[in-house]
Structure formats: C-alpha cells, structure tokens
C-alpha cells in the first residue's frame, strides 16, 4: 500500500508540471523552436512512461486484491469452524451435566465420586478424574472463545484493507483519465510547434492535423468540466434525499422505541410470575443467541464490504454469472453475446482485445466494433460521444457510465433489469446496479445502430 501511495504522489507531480506547452512566438528562430518542440515531446514521453508504470502498478494491485480475497475466505472458514467446535463442546458439557442431574439432581459429580468409591485410593482417582474432565472442558471453552475473538479481529482488519484497495483503484482510474487529457493537450502543442518549423508545403498538410488535435483536446477538457458539474448536481440531490430518508428513519425509530417501552413493561409483569427453573433456561437460551448474533454480525459486515466497487458491486451468485438472455435488437444481442465470451477473464489495465484481456472501455469498444459499431476508446470519450438517455429509457445494449468524483472513469454494458456486464477489478462479470454501484452512476448513453 505504501508503494501505491508513492505512485499516486508521483503521478500528481507529473500532472502538475506537464501543463499545455505554449506555442513559441514568431520572433524565435527555427533552432529555438526545435528546442521547444524537443522539450514538449520529452514531456509527452514522460507522461506515456508514467501511464505504462501505472499499468504495471495495477498488476500488483490485482495480485494484492486476489490474495486479500483468499485471506477473507480463509478467515470466514476459520470463524465457521471455531463456531462449530464451540457449539459441539457446549453440547458435550450440557449432556454430561444433564446425565449427572438425571442420576440425582442433588448430587454433584464430586459427591457421586465420593459415594461410589470402593476405597480411599479409588476415591482419589475418581475425584482427580472428575476434576480433570471439568478443567479440560472449561479450558477448551475459554481457548475456543479466545480463538473466535482473534479470528473476528483479523477478519475486520482484512475488510478494512479491502476497502482501502478499492479506494486506491478508483483514484488510479481518475488519474489515468486526467493524464489522457494532458497527453492530448501536449500533442496538440507539439503539432503547433512542428508547423512553425516545417516548410510552407508541410504547413498546409499539418494545419489540418493541428486543428483536429486542438479540437479533440478542447472537447476532452470541456467534457470533463461538464461531467464534473453533472456529478456535483447528482451528489447534491443524493445528499438531500439521504437527509430526508434519515429524518424518516429517525421518526420510525422513535415510534419503535416507544412501542418497545410498552412491550417491555408488559413483559416485566409476566416475567415476575415465572419459576426459577424457567428463568435459568431462558438465560441459557439468551446466552447462546447472543453468541450466534455476534458471529452473524461479522458475516454481515463481510458482505457489506463486498458490496463496496468490496466487490465493486452487489454480491452475485453463480447463477448471476451465466451468459445473459436479453430482449433487444440483433445488434444489441450481438454486442452482449460478444462481451459474454470473456466472462470470468481477468481485468487488464489498458487491454482492448482478447489476446491482451480487457479493461472496462476496452471490453465495450471491442464488443461494439465486432458488431459493426465504432465507438471511442476510453470511458470518458464514450460518454462524450454517446446520446444521453434516462435510466427509464435504457435498453439492453446501451452503456451505463460511472464516476468516482472527478470525470467518467468506468463503463459497463446495460443488460436490462438493473444489471450490467462490465470489466472491473474482479474481471469480466455481471453486476447489479443496485447498492454499491448506484452511488457512482453518472448516466446512460446510446450509440446509433444499437437501439
């Protein structure tokens, strides 16, 4: 994690120093212009090297994430085994005590040993045996409780680490998009300098390229600003909705508390008439229920972490990961069928074809191209080029876009029924939009020829 944070600092420094290089004035000589172009080309190369390093860093991140998932599974298994062993031990002790009580409820195991002894030596042997059994039971119970507590703490730490890795992944996606824009700006400036150095004939040829590059850079920058405004608006609306829901929840909680107070008063009156034996039985049952609740709480926490992009999305079952059957145009079905071929394959940063693997926008651009529809390469560019539609208008084959706070950084293919097929840090998979993903949705987009 320390290495990843260092990488983020380096990337931030590069972005801060590689601003759009100003075009030199006509007063400069060709030698000076050549030197200016050399400098900006060096900055472009540095950006490309940093982007390559980021790709390599992501491979390390994926390995860390996979290892963490294995640790989480092992931790859950250890907790389950400890819980089962503790339950078995409690049942053995309960059966043993029940057997003693069945013989004579007024006698303890020690009294029984005393009365059943044939001699003083037999008495000592019986007494030591009873004590050894009772001490062993108690020691085992204490040890298992301690082990269960240790496993729970380890599991909580693993869930926290998983969340940190997810946040780092989101930050890297944002920085990659920013570097893409910065590289486009520098390439436009490099072409401008090349025009000044070129001959008149070359100027005419390069003018068109410069105009196109500058237009693309401006479009990317404008798109990023528009996306940020849309995200801030959506976040404000979400905050207002959350405040309203919180107020409603607090009112409901107050009503429930009042109802529980009345119920408790009635229960106290009824409980006063119970026998001591019934109260002891109730106490034993409550103790076991509390233990079960503690372990169940740890399990719920794990699933919550998993819903966080933890899983980068709501938890899915094996049945969810089957090739989807959708309704829609032939092109939409073809796009989804092509993307479905790669379900279960690993995420590859910058990947855009089957031989290399796919990142999110690589999967969408490849699947569309294979069905005769050409779309831009990155998630941000795809969002800018698509026709925006509402969630209610979205159909299978349309795209759904996401942002983690600063520009579009993820994209998936909408399947209908609140699901999408996407390439995320866990590989090519089907995810539900409800839950974790819903907080990052920017909007939906459609391309001509699909729907």
TrEMBL record:
This is Peptidase. Residues 251-326 are annotated as: Disordered. GO terms for biological process: proteolysis. It comes from the Bacteria. Residues 30-85 form a coiled coil. One of its GO terms (molecular function) is cysteine-type peptidase activity. It comes from Candidatus Kurthia intestinigallinarum. Residues 251-299 have a biased composition (Low complexity). Transmembrane segments: none annotated. Residues 300-326 have a biased composition (Polar residues). InterPro entries: NLP_P60_dom, Papain-like_cys_pep_sf, PcsB_CC, Peptidase_C40. Residues 329-448 form the NlpC/P60 domain. SUPFAM superfamilies: Cysteine proteinases. Keywords: Coiled coil, Hydrolase, Protease, Signal, Thiol protease. Gene3D superfamilies: 6.10.250.3150, endopeptidase domain like (from Nostoc punctiforme) (3.90.1720.10). Residues 1-24 form the signal peptide. Belongs to the peptidase C40 family. The keyword Plastid does not apply. Pfam families: CC_PcsB (PF24568), NLPC_P60 (PF00877).
